[in-house]
Specification:
mainly alpha
Amino acid sequence: MESSTAAGPGATDGAGAPEPARVRQMWHLLEPLHAVLYYAPDAFDEAAALGYDVSERWPCYFAWRAAALGPVGAGRVASAFYSFSPATVARYVPAAWDVAAPADVLAARLRAVDRTYRALLGDDVLAGPELAEAAALARRAAGAAPLAGRALAAAHAELPWPEAPHLVLWQAATILREQRGDGHLVALAAAGLDPVESLVSFAAVGAAAEATFASRGWSAAEWAAARERLAARGLVHPEGSATDAGRALRAGVERRTDELAAAPWAALGPEGTARLAELLGGPWLAVVGSGLLPSENTLGIGKV
């Protein structure tokens, strides 16, 4: 994957569309602002108040992320989340809705984000003009995100917008990351990579250690079978590293993902996108510098 720092302030491809590096940069800047929800102590406090088991992060993770879909079953969540083993999903869904209704989860989620952002950024930053400007720009970008075939993004786009700018920023970041993620699934499917193969092929190019992907719940036998299928296609070597063909396939998936995520930034324009990137620097540093996020992740962020 490409570095998030490659694009210049007004980077486009010369035809009005943003360069892939700019699209990737915006994802790298926004993803931590969304994902901190899944690790923040205040979020676990809110989840515990709803009745979720917080001795591990997965009961509230599945509730937080799937609540916008409504009280759906394991099949719909596994389809939308893709990389998780269906057996893992079934351990938490639909049981999550027996603990709390999706509407209550969504309300608690915003309270968790509010508490977390106040703790990490401070009230002065949240009340400042730069945060309000960033929220407005991010909302404009999110409003331009194509939603056809994007189940998680469309579900979040239907939610009412909160009033506080920092919550607007979080919700916009959520729509944009889920819209990108939905497009990523399209790219994976087009490349002929099923859910477990998508992880095996990603580990094969060094995006993260295989152990990092264990959180998705695939058994050793399922992982080995997926590796064998990819080896039969000439995409990985027997020990699991990617062949040249495998690296090319994954590069194509990432390129297509960037292309499918470009529309919001084309709509915002090079100046608006560059301004948002500038404004996100401080919040991004606060979240990443908090130590709450794992140093290695299944998204491969930070890998070249």
